[in-house]
Amino acid sequence: MTDVEEGLGRIIEAMGALDEAMGQPSMLVASSWREDAAVNFDEDAARYAARVVEALADSEAARVTLILCGEGGRAAFADGVRRALLGWEIAYDVCVVDRARGALAALALSASRIVLAPGAGVGAPDTGPTGGQATGSWAPEIARHIPAHLDMKNPLSARRALSYAHASRQAELALHLTTTVATERGIDPRELIARLGMRRQGTELAAGPAALNALGLDASWARGHTRDALRALERALEDALSLRAAPQPRYEELDFADTVEFAPATRLPGALVLSSTVGFVYLLDTGSPDPDTGLYQGDWLPADA
To answer: Which of 48, 83, 242, 245 is 20 to 30 A from 184 (CA-CA)?
Structure first.
Protein backbone atom coordinates (compact mmCIF):
# COMPACT_ATOMS: atom_id res chain seq x y z
CA MET A 1 0.00 0.00 0.00
CA THR A 2 1.38 3.41 -0.99
CA ASP A 3 1.45 6.43 1.31
CA VAL A 4 -1.30 8.05 -0.80
CA GLU A 5 -3.52 4.97 -0.52
CA GLU A 6 -2.94 4.76 3.22
CA GLY A 7 -3.76 8.45 3.65
CA LEU A 8 -6.95 8.14 1.62
CA GLY A 9 -7.97 5.11 3.67
CA ARG A 10 -7.72 7.11 6.91
CA ILE A 11 -9.70 9.96 5.37
CA ILE A 12 -12.48 7.66 4.14
CA GLU A 13 -12.65 6.03 7.58
CA ALA A 14 -13.04 9.43 9.29
CA MET A 15 -15.67 10.44 6.72
CA GLY A 16 -17.61 7.26 7.52
CA ALA A 17 -17.66 8.21 11.20
CA LEU A 18 -18.89 11.70 10.28
CA ASP A 19 -21.61 10.23 8.03
CA GLU A 20 -22.87 8.25 10.99
CA ALA A 21 -22.72 11.24 13.34
CA MET A 22 -24.49 13.59 10.90
CA GLY A 23 -26.96 10.96 9.66
CA GLN A 24 -26.22 11.65 5.99
CA PRO A 25 -23.47 11.01 3.40
CA SER A 26 -20.63 13.45 3.00
CA MET A 27 -18.48 15.00 0.29
CA LEU A 28 -14.97 16.26 1.03
CA VAL A 29 -13.41 19.32 -0.61
CA ALA A 30 -9.91 19.91 0.76
CA SER A 31 -6.75 21.57 -0.51
CA SER A 32 -3.27 22.31 0.75
CA TRP A 33 -2.25 25.87 1.57
CA ARG A 34 1.41 25.04 2.24
CA GLU A 35 3.67 27.66 0.71
CA ASP A 36 5.08 25.49 -2.09
CA ALA A 37 2.15 23.09 -2.48
CA ALA A 38 -0.88 25.41 -2.35
CA VAL A 39 -3.71 24.40 -4.67
CA ASN A 40 -6.37 26.78 -5.91
CA PHE A 41 -9.59 25.04 -6.88
CA ASP A 42 -10.58 26.15 -10.38
CA GLU A 43 -13.01 25.36 -13.20
CA ASP A 44 -11.39 21.96 -13.83
CA ALA A 45 -11.75 21.05 -10.16
CA ALA A 46 -15.42 22.06 -10.34
CA ARG A 47 -16.00 19.53 -13.11
CA TYR A 48 -14.49 16.73 -11.03
CA ALA A 49 -16.54 17.86 -8.03
CA ALA A 50 -19.67 17.71 -10.22
CA ARG A 51 -18.93 14.03 -10.90
CA VAL A 52 -18.86 13.34 -7.17
CA VAL A 53 -22.16 15.22 -6.75
CA GLU A 54 -23.68 13.15 -9.56
CA ALA A 55 -22.57 9.94 -7.84
CA LEU A 56 -24.27 11.12 -4.65
CA ALA A 57 -27.42 11.86 -6.66
CA ASP A 58 -27.27 8.36 -8.20
CA SER A 59 -27.24 6.95 -4.65
CA GLU A 60 -30.47 8.93 -4.04
CA ALA A 61 -28.93 11.23 -1.45
CA ALA A 62 -31.37 14.03 -0.64
CA ARG A 63 -29.05 15.88 1.78
CA VAL A 64 -25.28 15.70 2.21
CA THR A 65 -22.57 17.11 4.42
CA LEU A 66 -20.07 19.19 2.49
CA ILE A 67 -16.74 18.99 4.34
CA LEU A 68 -14.51 21.99 3.63
CA CYS A 69 -10.83 22.52 4.36
CA GLY A 70 -8.75 25.03 2.43
CA GLU A 71 -8.38 28.60 1.26
CA GLY A 72 -8.12 30.65 -1.88
CA GLY A 73 -9.41 29.17 -5.12
CA ARG A 74 -11.51 30.68 -7.88
CA ALA A 75 -15.10 31.83 -7.50
CA ALA A 76 -16.00 29.65 -10.51
CA PHE A 77 -15.23 26.55 -8.44
CA ALA A 78 -17.56 27.48 -5.58
CA ASP A 79 -20.25 28.53 -8.02
CA GLY A 80 -19.89 25.28 -9.99
CA VAL A 81 -20.18 23.05 -6.91
CA ARG A 82 -23.15 25.06 -5.63
CA ARG A 83 -24.97 24.81 -8.96
CA ALA A 84 -24.25 21.07 -9.21
CA LEU A 85 -25.83 20.45 -5.80
CA LEU A 86 -28.80 22.68 -6.61
CA GLY A 87 -29.21 21.11 -10.03
CA TRP A 88 -29.41 17.62 -8.56
CA GLU A 89 -31.76 18.95 -5.84
CA ILE A 90 -29.40 17.94 -3.04
CA ALA A 91 -29.64 20.03 0.11
CA TYR A 92 -26.37 20.44 1.98
CA ASP A 93 -24.93 21.28 5.36
CA VAL A 94 -21.29 22.25 5.79
CA CYS A 95 -18.65 21.05 8.22
CA VAL A 96 -15.49 23.17 8.32
CA VAL A 97 -12.21 21.49 9.20
CA ASP A 98 -9.55 23.98 10.28
CA ARG A 99 -10.32 26.79 7.81
CA ALA A 100 -12.47 27.81 4.85
CA ARG A 101 -11.50 30.99 3.08
CA GLY A 102 -12.07 32.40 -0.37
CA ALA A 103 -14.11 30.13 -2.64
CA LEU A 104 -14.67 27.62 0.17
CA ALA A 105 -15.99 30.37 2.45
CA ALA A 106 -18.57 31.28 -0.19
CA LEU A 107 -19.63 27.62 -0.28
CA ALA A 108 -19.93 27.54 3.51
CA LEU A 109 -22.12 30.65 3.56
CA SER A 110 -24.52 29.10 1.04
CA ALA A 111 -25.20 26.01 3.20
CA SER A 112 -28.32 25.35 5.27
CA ARG A 113 -26.22 24.76 8.38
CA ILE A 114 -22.56 25.35 9.28
CA VAL A 115 -20.80 23.12 11.81
CA LEU A 116 -17.28 24.12 12.87
CA ALA A 117 -14.60 21.81 14.22
CA PRO A 118 -12.79 23.10 17.34
CA GLY A 119 -10.61 26.00 16.24
CA ALA A 120 -12.15 26.19 12.77
CA GLY A 121 -13.75 29.24 11.23
CA VAL A 122 -15.10 30.85 8.08
CA GLY A 123 -12.66 33.36 6.64
CA ALA A 124 -13.17 36.19 4.18
CA PRO A 125 -15.07 34.98 1.11
CA ASP A 126 -13.98 37.89 -1.09
CA THR A 127 -10.36 36.81 -1.57
CA GLY A 128 -8.48 35.77 -4.66
CA PRO A 129 -6.31 32.67 -5.18
CA THR A 130 -3.69 31.85 -2.57
CA GLY A 131 0.03 31.38 -3.06
CA GLY A 132 0.33 33.46 -6.23
CA GLN A 133 -1.68 33.84 -9.40
CA ALA A 134 -0.65 32.43 -12.75
CA THR A 135 -0.63 34.94 -15.56
CA GLY A 136 -2.93 34.70 -18.52
CA SER A 137 -4.52 36.82 -21.22
CA TRP A 138 -4.90 40.59 -21.38
CA ALA A 139 -8.69 40.41 -21.64
CA PRO A 140 -10.51 43.74 -21.06
CA GLU A 141 -11.94 42.58 -17.73
CA ILE A 142 -8.37 41.80 -16.63
CA ALA A 143 -6.62 44.84 -18.07
CA ARG A 144 -8.81 47.30 -16.15
CA HIS A 145 -7.28 45.98 -12.89
CA ILE A 146 -3.74 47.02 -13.89
CA PRO A 147 -2.37 49.66 -11.47
CA ALA A 148 -1.87 52.92 -13.36
CA HIS A 149 1.54 53.67 -11.83
CA LEU A 150 3.31 50.55 -13.14
CA ASP A 151 5.84 50.78 -15.97
CA MET A 152 4.35 48.40 -18.53
CA LYS A 153 7.39 48.76 -20.81
CA ASN A 154 9.44 46.77 -18.32
CA PRO A 155 8.85 43.02 -18.96
CA LEU A 156 9.16 42.14 -15.27
CA SER A 157 6.75 44.89 -14.24
CA ALA A 158 4.32 43.82 -16.98
CA ARG A 159 4.37 40.22 -15.76
CA ARG A 160 3.80 41.30 -12.17
CA ALA A 161 1.03 43.63 -13.27
CA LEU A 162 -0.75 40.85 -15.12
CA SER A 163 -0.45 38.56 -12.12
CA TYR A 164 -1.85 41.27 -9.84
CA ALA A 165 -4.67 42.00 -12.27
CA HIS A 166 -5.75 38.36 -12.45
CA ALA A 167 -5.74 38.07 -8.65
CA SER A 168 -7.72 41.31 -8.35
CA ARG A 169 -10.26 40.08 -10.92
CA GLN A 170 -10.70 36.80 -9.03
CA ALA A 171 -11.29 38.71 -5.78
CA GLU A 172 -13.91 40.79 -7.60
CA LEU A 173 -15.66 37.64 -8.85
CA ALA A 174 -15.58 36.21 -5.32
CA LEU A 175 -17.25 39.39 -4.07
CA HIS A 176 -19.98 39.08 -6.73
CA LEU A 177 -20.59 35.43 -5.79
CA THR A 178 -20.75 36.30 -2.10
CA THR A 179 -23.31 39.01 -2.89
CA THR A 180 -25.40 36.47 -4.80
CA VAL A 181 -25.24 33.95 -1.95
CA ALA A 182 -26.16 36.58 0.64
CA THR A 183 -29.13 37.78 -1.41
CA GLU A 184 -30.40 34.21 -1.85
CA ARG A 185 -30.15 33.70 1.92
CA GLY A 186 -32.05 36.92 2.65
CA ILE A 187 -28.97 38.58 4.14
CA ASP A 188 -27.91 42.15 3.40
CA PRO A 189 -24.77 41.66 1.23
CA ARG A 190 -23.24 44.90 2.48
CA GLU A 191 -23.56 43.77 6.08
CA LEU A 192 -22.10 40.35 5.32
CA ILE A 193 -19.08 41.82 3.54
CA ALA A 194 -18.64 44.43 6.28
CA ARG A 195 -18.50 41.71 8.93
CA LEU A 196 -16.72 38.88 7.11
CA GLY A 197 -14.91 40.50 4.18
CA MET A 198 -11.21 41.11 3.58
CA ARG A 199 -11.29 44.60 5.08
CA ARG A 200 -12.52 43.14 8.37
CA GLN A 201 -10.89 39.69 8.54
CA GLY A 202 -7.96 39.91 6.15
CA THR A 203 -6.30 36.58 5.47
CA GLU A 204 -5.63 35.86 9.14
CA LEU A 205 -8.99 35.99 10.94
CA ALA A 206 -12.04 33.74 10.71
CA ALA A 207 -15.60 33.94 12.01
CA GLY A 208 -17.01 31.54 14.59
CA PRO A 209 -20.65 30.62 15.29
CA ALA A 210 -21.50 33.84 17.15
CA ALA A 211 -20.46 36.09 14.25
CA LEU A 212 -22.16 33.86 11.68
CA ASN A 213 -25.40 33.58 13.65
CA ALA A 214 -25.49 37.37 14.05
CA LEU A 215 -25.93 37.51 10.27
CA GLY A 216 -28.91 35.16 10.39
CA LEU A 217 -27.01 31.97 9.52
CA ASP A 218 -27.32 28.66 11.40
CA ALA A 219 -23.87 27.90 12.79
CA SER A 220 -22.57 25.92 15.76
CA TRP A 221 -19.50 24.21 17.16
CA ALA A 222 -19.26 20.48 16.56
CA ARG A 223 -20.13 18.36 19.58
CA GLY A 224 -19.94 14.71 20.57
CA HIS A 225 -19.32 12.16 17.81
CA THR A 226 -19.35 14.88 15.15
CA ARG A 227 -16.48 16.69 16.87
CA ASP A 228 -14.53 13.44 17.29
CA ALA A 229 -14.99 12.56 13.61
CA LEU A 230 -13.89 16.02 12.46
CA ARG A 231 -10.81 15.90 14.67
CA ALA A 232 -9.86 12.50 13.23
CA LEU A 233 -10.43 13.85 9.73
CA GLU A 234 -8.30 16.91 10.45
CA ARG A 235 -5.37 14.75 11.54
CA ALA A 236 -5.76 12.54 8.47
CA LEU A 237 -5.81 15.59 6.17
CA GLU A 238 -2.77 17.08 7.88
CA ASP A 239 -0.81 13.95 7.02
CA ALA A 240 -2.26 13.35 3.54
CA LEU A 241 -1.81 16.96 2.36
CA SER A 242 1.29 17.75 4.45
CA LEU A 243 -0.50 20.79 5.88
CA ARG A 244 1.83 21.26 8.84
CA ALA A 245 5.05 20.23 7.09
CA ALA A 246 7.65 22.83 6.22
CA PRO A 247 8.20 23.54 2.51
CA GLN A 248 10.76 21.15 1.07
CA PRO A 249 13.99 22.59 -0.39
CA ARG A 250 14.15 22.07 -4.15
CA TYR A 251 17.94 21.86 -4.26
CA GLU A 252 20.98 21.47 -2.02
CA GLU A 253 24.15 23.49 -2.42
CA LEU A 254 27.22 21.31 -2.86
CA ASP A 255 30.79 21.97 -1.79
CA PHE A 256 31.73 22.80 -5.36
CA ALA A 257 31.49 26.45 -6.33
CA ASP A 258 28.11 27.48 -7.78
CA THR A 259 26.93 23.86 -7.89
CA VAL A 260 23.61 22.55 -6.65
CA GLU A 261 21.90 19.17 -6.60
CA PHE A 262 18.15 19.21 -7.25
CA ALA A 263 15.90 17.04 -5.10
CA PRO A 264 14.29 14.06 -6.89
CA ALA A 265 10.84 14.83 -8.27
CA THR A 266 7.97 13.20 -6.37
CA ARG A 267 4.18 13.07 -6.62
CA LEU A 268 2.52 14.88 -3.72
CA PRO A 269 -1.24 15.01 -2.98
CA GLY A 270 -2.34 18.63 -3.06
CA ALA A 271 -6.15 18.50 -3.09
CA LEU A 272 -9.05 16.08 -2.71
CA VAL A 273 -12.63 15.99 -3.95
CA LEU A 274 -14.34 12.78 -2.90
CA SER A 275 -17.19 10.89 -1.26
CA SER A 276 -17.07 7.43 0.31
CA THR A 277 -17.62 5.80 -3.10
CA VAL A 278 -15.98 8.01 -5.73
CA GLY A 279 -13.39 10.73 -5.73
CA PHE A 280 -10.40 12.46 -7.25
CA VAL A 281 -6.98 13.52 -5.98
CA TYR A 282 -4.85 16.32 -7.38
CA LEU A 283 -1.29 14.97 -7.51
CA LEU A 284 1.41 17.62 -7.63
CA ASP A 285 4.68 17.09 -9.48
CA THR A 286 7.48 18.54 -7.34
CA GLY A 287 9.68 18.62 -10.42
CA SER A 288 7.30 20.94 -12.30
CA PRO A 289 6.85 24.31 -10.55
CA ASP A 290 4.83 26.96 -12.34
CA PRO A 291 7.26 29.52 -13.81
CA ASP A 292 5.06 32.47 -12.77
CA THR A 293 3.99 31.50 -9.26
CA GLY A 294 6.52 28.89 -8.15
CA LEU A 295 3.66 26.58 -7.12
CA TYR A 296 3.85 22.94 -8.07
CA GLN A 297 1.69 21.88 -11.01
CA GLY A 298 -0.28 18.63 -11.15
CA ASP A 299 -3.11 16.56 -12.53
CA TRP A 300 -6.50 15.33 -11.30
CA LEU A 301 -6.61 11.53 -11.08
CA PRO A 302 -9.21 9.06 -9.78
CA ALA A 303 -8.63 8.42 -6.09
CA ASP A 304 -8.47 4.68 -6.70
CA ALA A 305 -5.94 4.93 -9.55
So the answer is: 48
